[in-house]
Design brief:
The chain is of the alpha+beta class. It is built from seven helices and six strands; from the N terminus they run H-H-H-E-E-E-E-H-E-E-H-H-H. A four-stranded antiparallel β-sheet has the order 3-4-6-5.
Length: 224
């Protein structure tokens, strides 16, 4: 009995030790995010279910937030009763999810929304964009994709997760500091040159004289 009590005590202490050791690090960031989020963003949907190959409803566009065991087809949902499931849709070959489904499980403030088939959706991951559109004043803080509204900061759920991490913010601060240092060093160089006495441009003046000679009318010797 004493051994069992000791084991129970160890199981209760371990989670507390993990939280203390992970304070301020990646483990703490993972704890702030639901455990299904990263697996969801890494999945590839709209393949054919290997368990229901013969069915015409074998397209895997469902996901169980409780099991996180990969994309599911509608027939697989029979084994996930009373679970939290969501449906993934597609727009321009990219995965999207309806706002009214995902906002029940995670905060999506700051993510650009779009209206597709009369329903608001958000994209799961970033979409490559060669260059921003003309006149664009607001872009995604992570991938710099053009955003329609200035109230949004991210173009997708994946970009929000990446942009909200402490490592991303720290990297941006370091980049700003480096740019400030480089600009200040350039400014110092300009001040040094401004204090130096200016010298007359001898080469430039001689070049001007040569150029004036070229513009004159050539003189010919008189005919004898």
């Amino acid at each position: 009995m004493a051994i069992e009590d000791q084991d129970n005590t160890i199981r209760e202490i371990k989670p507390k030790n993990r939280r203390i050791m992970g304070a301020g690090g990646p483990e703490e960031e993972d704890n702030r995010q639901p455990p299904w989020l990263k697996p969801l963003l890494q999945e590839k949907f709209f393949g054919h279910c290997k368990f229901h190959v013969d069915s015409h409803k074998s397209e895997c566009n469902m996901y169980c937030l409780d099991c996180t065991n990969g994309p599911l087809c509608p027939l697989c949902l029979a084994h996930h009763k009373d679970h939290h499931t969501i449906q993934i849709r597609r727009s321009s070959y990219h995965d999207v999810i309806r706002v009214n489904e995902i906002q029940k499980h995670i905060e999506i403030i700051g993510i650009q929304t779009y209206v597709i088939n009369s329903a608001k959706v958000i994209f799961l991951n970033e979409r490559p964009q060669p260059r921003p559109g003309k006149g664009v004043t607001n872009t995604c803080k992570v991938c710099y994709r053009s955003l329609v509204d200035d109230s949004f900061r991210f173009c997708s759920l994946g970009c929000k997760i990446a942009g909200s991490s402490r490592g991303f913010e720290k990297g941006r601060k370091n980049l700003v500091v480096e740019s400030d240092d480089s600009s200040s060093s350039i400014g110092i160089g300009k001040n040094i040159h401004s204090f130096s006495p200016s010298t007359p441009p001898l080469a430039a003046s001689s070049h001007c004289r040569i150029a004036k000679r070229r513009k004159g009318i050539p003189h010919r010797s008189p005919m004898g």
